[in-house]
NADPH-dependent FMN reductase
Amino acid sequence: MENTAHKLLIIVGSVREGRFGPVVGAWVAGQARAHGGFEVDVVDLADVDLPLALPAASPKHAGADYPRPAGMAALTSALGDADAFVIVTPEYNHSYPASLKAAVDWHFTQWTAKPVAFVSYGGAAGGRHAVLHLENVLTELHAVTVRDGLSFPNCYTAWQDGRPLDPEAPRYARTLLDQLFWWTNTLRAGREAAPYPG
Ligand SMILES: Cc1cc2nc3c(=O)[nH]c(=O)nc-3n(C[C@H](O)[C@H](O)[C@H](O)COP(=O)(O)O)c2cc1C
């Protein structure tokens, strides 16, 4: 394995006006930087051109020629460069936002044989249903989902000054990041040893 840092991309999935997502994303990025195992980058889907209408071909087979909008180029290259992902997702109607589905569907190989962890938030459900759906979808792209996620129910009252009120939250974040780090090491070594058969 090359002796370079593992690149972690944190994806802020909501794009709604007045959204809470960037608050959660900034806190997660702070926890990831404090962990020390990753070179951390954050992408906010609100900054990305994410049309719902896809080209005719599948991104799985089109490779670098897939005709994406210019305003998606930074996302595509960040996904491709990343060794690991944390998806920060709210819950909308017992699932995850359409912005995240579009970001997933415009890509394919960028996710393959890489680990994905989840930090979710929302009302009573805390993003639990959103994460279940994302796990299902990302498995189709040959990504590996990390079991221990972070979930923040009732996010508007459970957070203050940019951080969760639960004093245990940083410890839970550490567990998530330790598991993600293990998978990042393992899958990166695997990708470098042999092409993934899929
Ligand atoms: C369209 C919509 C649907 C929602 N559906 C749910 C839901 O099914 N379960 C839940 O726990 N919270 C639900 N919520 C609450 C959101 O998860 C909460 O408002 C969260 O802050 C949304 O993330 P955002 O602020 O980053 O957009 C919903 C909010 C919206 C706007």
